Amino acid sequence: MTMQVILHNHDAVHGFESAQEFAEDVLNRALKGKLDRLTRVEIWVSDENSHKGGADDKRCSMEAHPKGRKPVGVKNFAADIPAAIRGAATKLSHALEHELHKE
Fold first, then answer.
1. Which of 13, 36, 61, 81 has the fewest beta carbons under 10 Å from its own?
2. Does residue 45 sit in helix, strand or coil?
3. For the chain, how many structural domains are there in total?
């Protein structure tokens, strides 16, 4: 069974049609060695300031669902969606490392 990646793209986020593929690629690299212990990762991306603009206003929240454990969630803010996704994936990797070593 492979890990499922579910991307919830907020209406305010435009112009990044390949977000699903990009997110899957980033997660596969960031979570290497942990993928077989997860059932799914849910991702939410949004533009906090929408039409107003601003620095670090793109948010990416990720929630990993390890098998037999409570979900692990993180958030990251960045200037653009790809950077927000990469940052959240890095944070998620560290959080899972800590959580999965509790066994």
1. 36
2. strand
3. 1
Does pTM top 0.85 for this prediction?
A: yes
Is the distance from CB of 43 to CB of 37 less than 8 angstroms? no
23 vs 41: CA distance, rounded Å: 10
In whole angstroms, what is the distance from residue 82 CA to residue 53 CA?
16
Domain extent for 52: 4-100
Average confidence score pLDDT of the chain:
87
- The residue type at 49: N
Residue 86 tokens, joined = 């990469």
Contact 51, 75 (CB under 8 A): no
- Classified as helix, coil or strand, 76 is strand
